[in-house]
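Morning!

This is the sequence you dropped in the shared folder:
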Amino acid sequence: MKSSSLPLENRIPYLDVLRVIATMLVLLVHAPIARYADYGDTPSTLYAFYIVAVTIGSKLFFMISGALLLPVRRPWREFLNRRLHVVLIPLLLWSFIYLLLRAYSGNLSPRQLVSIFFYPIDTSLWFVYVMVVFYVFMPVLSRCVEAVGKRGLELYLALWILSSLIPYQHGVFMEWEQFSHHMFSSFSGYLGYLVMGYYLHRWPLRLGERRVRWALALFVLVSVVAFPVFEFTVQSHFGLSYRQHLDTVTYDISINTIAMGVLLFVLVQCFAPARYATAGKKGLAPAVGQVANCSYGIYLSNMLALRLLVWPATRPWLSSLPWIVDGLVCAVLVFVLTYVLCRAIQLAPFSKYVIGR
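The structure's back. Tokens below.
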């Protein structure tokens, strides 16, 4: 998710564009939570497709990390010190702020204080916890991806994608409770997103080739449209609740989520400018790099901004509007607030200990 604060000419523009998109998608997932009871358990085709479209945000960050960091070239001690230094200290600081907010609201228990070492004090921080473990494991993973080469990675990714079909079998071939305990369980994890990001960065899909375009279009159409439709139509005959159907299509390792990640990654990789604009030369706007530089800070602070500022200020005039309008407005407002906050923090000499920059 994070990268060094490199000069614009040394950055990879398409990865910065993906960071900005991923950041906005995370905000679009979080912003409507205040009205979850209004729509979360009510059958809605609009909400189902909305959540399928935006839930890829945090998983895109895994793909970006795989593309940027694999294979690890630095000595493992230097790599871990560099990565964990800029991730753990901000995480601890913001966790303490969330902890104070819970204590102030009277919603803090001793059990939560103990569990903070392996479970986030606020669920919105879950991604950072997973990424910290990946940083520790990444030097080992680097040896693996280099050893097996392109064909070995394709085999792994094929098995990973195959395992993503398992959740959709819960009505036809298995009980609802069984889909997380199957023969491919070891493949169906977030690690696949890291490897997929590395693979697509190392061997980009050539959309100029017609067969590649058709294959990608078919993969996305079947995964993002056909499988959710199958879930809400065919699977509805097996007595599951709407909530269970929704959990299937929003599962982090489901085929539709993976397909959305691949689609966004490939499209941005193909069409984003190859460099940033400089004097006399066209390219990507430097503002994109500035927003990408703030992505970690926005991620850490967005739920605080929502709870303390945006939701209290907007409830009187947004609660009567459709939830999707409410969510879009709140997402834009929280983006502006957190971006301004991060830019202000960057002016301080200790900013890297707060937002990693």
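Headline: The chain has a mean pLDDT of 83.

More detail when I'm at my desk.
O.
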